[in-house]
């Protein structure tokens, strides 16, 4: 059956696109940080800033590994290393002594328990009838299996399964090859411009999902180009939710 | 929550264990073989024997690749090569001229459309609440995604994803590592003795599923050992269906 993108499979970025990492991690930090109240009162701790810094460092590290091939492709290892590094910096040093190895491991696992955006589960279940649905995430296989959100993947492609991180070409081409499809029969769905730009260089279709927590650092020019190709933009489709994507894919061409 | 096997994840062999390859392939051969009736009348063709021979050759080839590391780990490639070889043999030569490249490709894809045993889907859905469910199959990722049966996998481990075939240790250890579990926290579920014997050598738990089409070539001694360890047998559990397995895993220890 033809669809607006003329694809057979959809591959989804997960952090930020399908699950709301920011609210989930901040909630877990706020609920179970285990830091004595007097320490926090003396040096007020902003869990929002903590989560954003952790996430930003993670993004920088995956970029480095994807470009150099050096470094772990297991997200738990990366998250833990970055957490340890953060706790050595002046801003977060006051927390360091209170978090031993066990607590730091528990915090690293916070990233396994993210909630979906409210449209994600419903959108995926609608699309599952007509498409192969996979992750194409820098998360580890186990992390993607553990997520709190109810996400009916047909297949999980992860950093540790493919052995790299996006935006290394191996990630896109490896997944497309395993699906035994031509790249133009697969769409990359993401809330991040750089991920879709990379997917497009390999001939994949692109769907940009607008998410309030993501792509905060785009230039005005880049932001302006987030429009469907039909309107002079960079991507095949631009949507506000996965339910909107499901509807678009169902409508006759 | 404790369970009778004390595991967190179950990895399933697929061909024969979860899907009924034999009846599915015979049905497809009988329905859409495309051979003129006079040819078949002159040399009566037994589709049952054809399917069994194809399957047996496939088993021998995966064994060779798993031991030598030489040969494709993509099941479509293997099935096609074996089909071409079969059609050169005296027994099936009368069919050869009638099946061109396109038809042979279509027949190779028959293996993507297998039906489940009648208990499979229900059993897996019951177990999904409490366990991580994965395939550990020599099938390709795309084949496992394409199956007709409704199988709610959390994760797909395949020959082409891990880059070998069972019973190469890489298959068992690779999957267990990606699940970030100790081997004894993972059970291999299969209708084939050799698969479970291999899994056990790596410390995995073992569940034997009795299926009428499988393990036809066991010795009387081997057959007799298909009993739970508690009864002096080789395996942790022996069941007749995946619904029975689900029930056993739910019952208090």
UniProtKB/TrEMBL annotation, chains A, B:
GO molecular function, one term: phosphatase activity
SUPFAM superfamilies: HAD-like (SSF56784)
Keywords: Hydrolase
Gene3D superfamilies, per database record: HAD superfamily/HAD-like, Putative phosphatase, domain 2
Entry superkingdom: Eukaryota
Name of the protein in question: Haloacid dehalogenase, type II
Organism field: Steccherinum ochraceum
